[in-house]
Amino acid sequence: MTTDASTTDLNILPPPPSQRAGETIVNPAGSSVWLFSPAVDLAAFLGSAAVSLLLLWLGAARHVLHDDAPDWTWISVVLLVDVAHVYATAFRVYFDPSEFARRRWLYVLTPLLGFLIGAALFSEGEAVFWRVLAYLAVFHFVRQQYGWVALYRSKCGETGRLGAWIDSAAVYAATCYPLIYWHTHLPRRFWWFVDQDFSSLPPVIDRIAAPVYVACLGAYFVRALVRGIFQRRFNPGKDVVVVTTALCWYVGIVAYNSDYAFTVTTVIIHGVPYFVLVYWYWSALKPQGSDQNSIASAKAGTWRRVVVFLATVWLLAYVEELFWDRGVWHDRGWLFGTSWQLSRWKMFYVALLAVPQITHYVLDGFIWRRRANPRFSRMIVKAQRSDL
Length: 388
Fold this sequence. Notes:
With 388 residues, the protein is mostly helical. Helix content is 70%, strand content 0%. The protein has one domain (32-284, 296-379). Helix 3 (71-92) packs across helix 14, helix 5 (104-123) packs antiparallel against helix 6 and helix 9 (236-255) runs antiparallel to helix 10 (259-284).
């Protein structure tokens, strides 16, 4: 998920007439510091990080940290979170007729061009295809964490340039430094998609980046403490995003040289908040009643929507992985059935199967930009007055 990075666009809440030029107003009267609600925000961001670390502890207890991620982890984390969250984009775009009609060419051409470019890359070699796809995924993962920080800045009316620089530096350091460490310590016992899909970098880059990483995160936390203690200006959601991102990415990539650790620490904090955002957007489009019967009905409807949402993305994820396993990986016949021999058509087959994730990566840079999505902008403002 990416959002507009300009400081003017981050100012969704218009400043009061008394605001002086350059002054940052945080937590304006009557507003909420949360994107959805305190409980939902904390469950999505802090809760997903807690689950990640709990699974890390469980992996250590079961002695799987130094092995490939076991099947139960692959199903619960990769299939039901990582692959499934890709299909959540359909609820934001393809299952919304008005949104699809609004930018039809973008939503039609993106998967089509994704297939054509993917096939062209594969024709130059499998390594080329997977390397490009890996770096596209890395960019997407990094930018999503930045996008959460940008949304929380907007919710609290933070428009100061210095704060924007410090916040951006912190979240990029929290994600990019572990990636730099990874690139400068190859080979590792884990990879993004396939073995050797990252290029090696000289170790000196890590020695340069490490103090920058510490300085960026240190500046963020010093500023947050000063603003909280002396100015009573809090942005707890943003703090949770930065802290959990820094902790999970460092533990999963730097502290452990483990496929299991990398999987549980990076995937869950990426996919679960995205589920929440898309479901919140999709469900908010439906009218809600105000009388007691309507409220009771709305609660029942909420559970039905949750079931429909999760069942849909999980089913689509299973079908996609069935085709991947039968036609390409041949790893889990016990779950997906007999393998297919499609070597003659592999270039087109792989490119076609990669279309959903390519589409997700690309569209995610468009569908959450508030300037180009007025309905989303209005919903972010409305969220200050009502919980999820």
